[in-house]
Amino acid sequence: xxxxxxxSNTILEAWDILLQYRWRFILPAFIIMSGVLVVGFxxxxxxxxxxxxxxxxxxxxTEIGTKGATRSFQDxxxxxxxxxxxxxxxxxxxxxxxxxxxxxxxxxSSSDMSMLRGNVIKKVNVRWDISxxxxxxxxxxxxxxxxxxxxxxxNTLIENYIKRSREIMNGRLNQTAQFFKxxxxxxRKKIEEYENNVLEFEIKYSELLPENPNNIQTKITxxxxxxxxxxSEREAARALTKALKQSIDTEPEIIPSTILGQNPEYTQLLxxxxxxxxxxxxxxxxxxxxxxxxxxxxxxxxxxxxxxxLNTTPSEIVIERQTQNNPKLSELxxxxxxxxxxYEALAGHTAAMEDQLKGLQLEANKIxxxxxxxxxxxxxxxxxxxxxxxxxxxxxxxxxxxxxESGNKGIQLMFLKPASIVSKPxxxxxxxxxxxxxxMGIFCGALNVFVSHRTNDSFNDGEQxxxxxxxxxxxxxxxxxxxxxRKVRKxxxxxxxxxxxxxxxxxxxxxxxxLYLDLEKPDLxxxxxxxxxxxxxxxxxxxxxxxxxxxQSNVQxxxxxxxxxxxx
Length: 568
Fold this sequence. Notes:
The chain is built from 16 helices and 6 strands. Among the domains are: about 45-185 and about 390-415, no CATH class; about 255-325. The strands form 2 sheets. It has a 4-stranded antiparallel β-sheet with strand order 2-3-1-6. Helix content is about 70%, strand content about 10%. By secondary structure, the protein is of the alpha+beta class. The two termini are about 95 Å apart.
């Protein structure tokens, strides 16, 4: 509680001091704030020029970039910043803008040019708005006191980069295309040599080549396939014969047969049940008997008994029993005879084909040397064709890229948004100036109050004077105010102080508004100033005319006094 009370007392004491020296706080704060706002009108402005360009890879270039050929001419993103603001780019920039600098009011002295070069290197920023595999949108900005120079710098940097990139890309594409053309021509010669060797070999060993439809390997393959099918059919016939024999062994020669008919007892029970249900319906619907009636109870009992008898009585009974020959056995014997005949025929055909296959295999062992030599020639031709296909594919891709680049397709470098003349400055900032003015005004006012309070040697009450002078205090009068002084104070408190406050606030608000228009709405501020100049110009002309007329009348009056002439 004591600490809180001390804090409250300290705050109240500081508030009393502030009220006592309020005008020593308000006047310095107003002067400093007004000064800072006025200085804001003369601080040098800095303008930021922003330009955008786009590097886009369309579907043609995506198709081209599926293999590694185009990696030799695609620029990686990591060097884009160096290409835009590196030393070669800055040198090319100054070569381009050097003739235009005198028109912008920039001297061509060595010191000024070196300072400008340092500012460009330091203040040019490169940022990516979008960065994907197919599109890169890059933003370049530069801040300078001259808005025209800032615009010229960013636009020239991007234009030079686009021009340089296209030249480099076209050169790389042409070099790559020439290399691929040389490789294609060399491989075509090899293919011609290998094809001549293959043709000579085919003419010499035409009957032993695997491409000949009548060669031994083709016959062996055909016989093997046919033999495999015959063996499968033979085994299927053997399995069928075995299954039929087992079925015949299990089938009886004579089978019994029975003739079934309807059970008369079951029919009588159904008729009786139907009659009882009709009677039950008559009792319940016509006679309106209840379930507690003895006849109803007896009827229900009889229906339940008949239902049990129906459940236990079969609906059909055997009327006659007899025996006959099994027809399935005769059918199985016929199928067995047919299956045995097929099996014997397939076994003979299979044995003959196996003997023929062994003879062909003995003859096929003699052509392995010829076939290996032919395969070697074929592999050479295929490998050379694969190489020429690879080089032709790369050549096609590079030619597509070159054609696309020549037509501004493929990798497109587009100057998306050139920088325009900037009218709104980025520095100084209006909000920062307001904060600085308020902060400095409060600081100076508080410092003045502090100094005034610390240097004040007057006594606020009689107790302070008594304790300082070590005298006994019998009574004290703080101030004797006359009627005239009270009227003066009343006028001062009611009229003078509020008027001063309104004037100060109006001045600060006007300065803040003008500064806001100058920094945030420069076009509107210029229009307002132009209209004000147009409005004040006629007033100045009228004032000049009145002064001139007054001067002429004064001259005439002076002449009349000197000559003494009068006119009626």
